[in-house]
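Quick illustration for those who missed Monday's session on complexes.
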Amino acid sequence: MRIAVLSDIHSNLEALEAVLARAADEGAEATWVLGDLVGYGADPVGVVERLRALAGAILAGNHDLAATDRFDTRWFNAVAEKAIRWTREVIDVDTHAFLADLVPRGRTDAGLLVHGSVVDPAAEYITDTTVARASFDAESFSVCFFGHTHMPTMFVRADGGRVEGVVLADGVAVRIDPAVRYLLNPGSVGQPRDGDRRASFLMLDIDARTAVVHRVAYDIDAAQTKIRDAGLPHVLADRLAEGR
Ligand code: ZN
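Prediction with zinc ion bound:
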């Protein structure tokens, strides 16, 4: 069984289409989405329509919660807040109803799924080993998939209890050892922030016990043009070219 793990799509339909095409080439039979379907980009309705047709699991991120009035945008910067206000105005009743049903945490046979962290699934960023340790301590999962930071990373905890952080490079397979615990982040489909402008996602092979991040080039110009034409802050278009 092969699963494509996606996160932080942020209304970027061009990036999503490129990732789904690559996931199909890699033999994906299901798709898990770790939240932030909307926010920042110009295609919230298109992205939700595409994702809801797929088999798998979908979580809400803080932006999806904010778009459906379940997260206080006081915690958002001005640009993110503007994009959420725009998103609320343009989504139709169906899209709103779909997003309003999503929650930031889920469970599958192959692991725990959260948007932010195990401690705070909606909002906490797992950016270092101290925060990662708190998530390992909070529950007894063996593998947990998380998003929110827009960085393809992994935190591992072996028997001795030491927690280590690792950057997940394009195409490098991680072997999942049953004696080790994992927190795995696929990176961001629609707004990568690690300096690589290509969309990021993770392929999980449950039988082979491997996880591999893939980076996928997509039509950034088209996504940027839509953002500018929508009247969204231009910085949201500019950053896509930089991957920051
Ligand atoms: Zn996000």
